[in-house]
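FORM 7B - TANDEM STRUCTURE REPORT

SECTION 1: FIRST PROTEIN
SEQUENCE AND TOKENS:
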Amino acid sequence: MTEPNLLTQCRIEARRLLKHVRSKDPAQAAPAAARFRRLRSFAANSFDDFSHLAQRAQLKHALAVIAEERGFESWPALKAALEPAETNRKTAIAAVGTDISSMVRLAVLYRSRVRQAGLSK
């Protein structure tokens, strides 16, 4: 999966997590609430009543949960790890044109950046 697709999938998962925590169904709300407890702002609270958590939780919190579950300190850190590789790849492709050997070097460099970010399959 390429970085933009991974970033999009993370955003979709965050929206789904937020939807679940706001659900009236305790079977969906309880696991989502447990995931929100990863965040300091929610860790100290005992959300026996999921409606209180549902009122406080925002998309930014769900994005932070997704980032932390993937080993990043925050959503901006995850986003920064994914976006530069894609931006640099597009810029480099435009610069080298159709030179095949340059494209091969670019592919190797791109793959190493993905591995460094810990995002390879």
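SECTION 2: SECOND PROTEIN
SEQUENCE AND TOKENS:
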Amino acid sequence: MHAWRLVRPRVPGTMEDIRRSSGKRPLSKPFCFLPIVAVAALLLVLTACGGSSKLSASSPTPAVGVPPSRVASGVAPAKTAAALPTVSATSSAPAAAALSVGMQGALGYDTVLYYSTGCFACGRPQVPDLFRRYLDPAGNEHTDDLFAPLASYGGYPHSFAADWSRGDLWVALCTHGYCGGETEPSGEPVERLMHSADGGVTWEDKGTMTVDTFLYGAFGKDVLEATLTDGRASYRFAESGRQLSAPRTDLQMTPQVVPGASADGSGEPGIVWQGIAADGTSNGRFYDLNGEPLVSGPSAHSALLAKTAQGFLMSWQDVAGGPQLVGYLDDSEHVLSSWKWSESHEGQTYLTVAGQLTSGLLYGTALLPDFFGFGTDGSERGDQAHGRMYPIEGVFLKLDSSTVHPIIGLSFGLTGNSSPFIVHMDQGPVRRVATGSDCLNVREATNLQAKTLGCFADGVLLRLTSDPQVEVEGITWVGVRTPDGQAGWVSGA
């Protein structure tokens, strides 16, 4: 089973083809198949989607809940200059490898892709909509609109957070008026907190929120939120009510949830404090929960994406508006390896990385130099002829070949200034619940009287375990994991 595959558009007169229904590779040339596993949690880095409308489309600053331009910047100077980490020198770093556009990529089996659509560099909400895309065992592609159930409330998603490994999705839903973001709230705004515990299929209304509140990160059944008051942000966990305070008072800091950065070293997501410069932008410095320096990027225009076995995965620009770089830094802040995306479209350069897979494959979103020719003959373009303004595509980044591979299908049907932005990728194998009416019980053991771990609605994806199917008293049982990771059994699957 493979998480993704590369497919080459067919050259007229050859036998090359895309075997999407069977998962087979093109016949005329062997291509690379890379298995992947799930990223632990979401890191939202859709920089063109949040913050000030004047934000550069190529800025690497991660999209956090509160736009930096609206947070007060009057902070006392640091008491001890030596306590501040210095931005890493890059003079001794290996030269960055140039990234170039490769052949198209396609979703493979056992892969679930989450993405949103919206305008580019326009100050839209981070995740205004959320789609789930995957292949079923027969090779058929499915796309589900996970925010569709929220439409009955009216309004729009104001901010979003997810703990993907536990199936917990949170949405701050602005149901009336304007709930803040680019400017102050207006129009008698009402904001509600919505929670899904099954990966976005069913939703629970958790009640009203304080207006001008943004979601920062999810930790299972709780979510970190920030509320702006007189231009200053305060942080608390919505369910427990626990306050979160910056570990240092001599610096301006904002929290972010970083995959792999848990304080206990378990590899789970953890909170990292990001330094903020006097003008409200990132200063490229990051601190642990105790306020101790964790890592500094190669420039002030740096974003921390994840803590991985290869080192700190970061993206940065040497100068604002310049080429986008992505690479790994060690604990001493030396750049171990890096890649540069210099491709531009009408003078604009844009690349974000949403996550890393254990194979080393990265995934994200890129502004390509031109509209890409998808399909077996390159004719499936989705370009200006279909009303699109920008050649933005979800992409795989294959670092060993320094290539960027646009993913087929995500932009099809979009028009105007609407583009796909990858949010997260997860690996199955999964099976979709389809009872026709009732929910499906997941039980602790292969027995109809065994304790139920939950009853899941149609549309929920259950991950298959390594346990084989077993037959007990004429009933076939299949080992699965619930959205929150509990191992159990379902009958008749």
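SECTION 3: OBSERVATIONS ON SECOND PROTEIN
Residues 5-91 have pLDDT under 50 and may be disordered.
The first strand starts at residue 4 and ends at 7.

SECTION 4: SIGNATURE
Preparer initials: ____
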